[in-house]
Amino acid sequence: MFGHRPDSVSAAEGAQAAADGRVVIYWRKGCPFTKRLRLVLGKRGAKAVWVDIWADPDAAAFVRSVNDGNETVPTVVIDREAHTNPPPKQVVEALARRA
């Protein structure tokens, strides 16, 4: 799964997953910061919910709403709070808490 782009869900599914306390990663193709995060997460990344902001306008709108109008990715929702380009270690730790 993580040798290529992750499978993506809709913005609505991402919002529900975040409300349920899951780690949700908003991303887009070609982003080097997202690529770095995917590489660090490795197989652990499958535990997160991935939302492609270029595939769903509502996802892009959410990312803009938490990033001063910018489509900055990765934007990661951890414990129902959005984090802009967090350190990969923070995401690894969040996923580990949900194991």
Overview of the structural elements:
This protein has 99 residues and is α+β, with helices and mostly antiparallel strands. The relative contact order is 0.23. Helix content is 39%, strand content 16%. The chain starts with 10 loop residues before the first helix and ends with a helix. It has a four-stranded mixed beta sheet with strand order 2-1-3-4, covered by helices on one side. The model has no long low-confidence stretch (mean pLDDT 93). It contains four helices and four strands. Strand 1, helix 2 and strand 2 form a beta-alpha-beta unit. Helix 2 crosses helix 4. The protein has a single domain, classed as Glutaredoxin (3-Layer(aba) Sandwich), CATH 3.40.30.10.
CATH superfamily: Glutaredoxin
Query: In CATH, what is the class?
Result: Alpha Beta
Share of helix, binned? 25-40%
Rg, rounded, reads 12 Å
Q: Domains counted in the coordinates: how many?
A: 1
Q: Which structural category do the helix and sheet elements fall into? A: alpha+beta
Q: How would the global form be characterised?
A: globular
- How widely separated are the two ends? 19 Å
Number of distinct beta strands: 4
Strand order of the largest sheet: 2-1-3-4
Number of helices: 4
The CATH topology annotation reads as Glutaredoxin
Order of helices and strands: HEHEHEEH
Strand content: 15-25%
Unreliably modeled segments:
none
At CATH level 2, the architecture is 3-Layer(aba) Sandwich
Q: Main beta sheet: strand number and arrangement?
A: 4 strands, mixed
- Overall mean pLDDT stands at 93
